[in-house]
Amino acid sequence: WDAAYERELQTFQDIGDTGEIWFGEESMVRIIRWLEKHEVPLDSSVLDIGTGNGVLLVELAKSGYTNLTGIDYSPSAIQLSEKVREKEGMSNIKLKVEDFLAPSAELSGFDICIDKGTFDAVSLDPEDAVGKRKLYVGSLSRVLKPEGFFLITSCNWTKEELLNEFGEGFEILEELPTPKFCFGGRIGNSVTALVFQRK
Question: Which Pfam family, any one of them, does this sequence belong to (predicted)?
Answer without folding.
Answer: Methyltransf_31
